[in-house]
Sequence to fold (260 residues):
Amino acid sequence: MDLQNIRFEKEGAVATITIDRPKALNALNYDTLQELLYCFRQLARDRETGVVIITGGGEKSFVAGADISHMVNLEGLEGTEFARLGHEAMAAVESAPQPVIAAVNGFALGGGCELAISCDIRVASENAKFGQPEVNLGVIPGFGGTQRLPRLVGKGLACELLFTGDMIDAAEALRIGLVNKVVPQAELMDVCREMAKKITSKGPVAIRLCKETVNNGSQMDLGRANHYEAIQFGQCFASADQKEGMQAFLEKRKAEFTGK
Ligand code: CAA
Fold:
């Protein structure tokens, strides 16, 4: 696929996806969502890439939402179809085998906030702004915001953001647990790359199983989820990484993981 709206770059075990439509503050139109899906379909089969970073092109915006100029003339079921495409893209991010870090470099509004909360980890620059302003446009969030936001920050805080459409700054996002950390804008990508590097130095099989277990377990009650965790824990023992990781500890040396 010829990518027009996204830059998809790989450096070693880290892939970076940049939503790159700065003139529209990186808003997600139909084509951009298709391109995002394409990238994550590649990543689903990619054993070389250990971590993915998603960011926005330009200095001002991560993603300022779904594209309003695309949505303005949608009728009835076309709205549902567009939301389904958005959901498919968000689910592809969430269920990617690699951990996904959102490097939030500015506005993360509507579909942009929904993209950020589909990622596993969010690092924000000091100028980042978050919000679900859909009610200002006479609609509700359509890419998972009504569901993932309450699960992340709790129902009360989520409802306040969803019903008022207010934007919050990075410090407030940190306070309510919407982001993991806030850093100066100039340091954002370095901080994310450092975090990515640390993750890729761990046992790759364990990282993949860990993400899968967190995600699938969060859909289950605690009893079933713990039962599932025990099975997933057992899966680790079928890997060379587990033998190497534990042997290296006992031999007081650094583990050399192979991802097998
Ligand atoms: N869709 C399409 N275009 C957008 C956009 C969006 N979501 N957000 C910004 N743009 C465009 C603007 O129309 C403008 O284009 P022109 O230069 O051609 O006029 C350009 O980006 C720059 O934007 P502004 O001039 O508005 O920049 P600003 O600094 O004055 O304001 C902003 C920045 C506060 C983010 C403002 O652009 C804004 O409020 N954007 C809309 C945010 C929004 O409502 N997002 C939710 C969309 S609905 C949604 O996402 C539904 C869903 O859940 C699926």
